[in-house]
Amino acid sequence: MDEPLFGGISRREIFIERFANAFIITVTLLTLLAALLQSVRTGVYLHLFLALSTCMFTAIEVRLVNWYRVGDLEPSFKYIIFMLGSAITFLCFVANMYFFF
């Protein structure tokens, strides 16, 4: 197996990344479920477009985390990945408030 390009990462960082990844995926799936329920209930199917765009951003985030874990990205990308994850989480909370309030 090839050695990572920028050195390995610690077990602590792997745990934090996996937890953050799981949290973001869970929040996104709950937003997708809420959008589906609201679109069926109200008949406004534009909610699904917001949820699908959130899922696309989450897919990008997951891919970046995988590249970082393998070692293909520089360590400075860690902060960009966490900021993107925070933005996705905030987007999901705002979308859920939009759906239900």
Automatic annotation (TrEMBL):
- TM segment ranges: 19-38, 44-65, 77-100
Q: Which domain of life does the protein's organism represent?
A: Eukaryota
- Entry's Pfam families? DUF2678
Question: Could you tell me which InterPro entries the record lists for this protein?
Answer: DUF2678
Provide the alphabetized UniProt keywords: Membrane, Transmembrane, Transmembrane helix
Q: Which PANTHER family match?
A: TRANSMEMBRANE PROTEIN 243 (PTHR28603)
This one is known as Uncharacterized protein
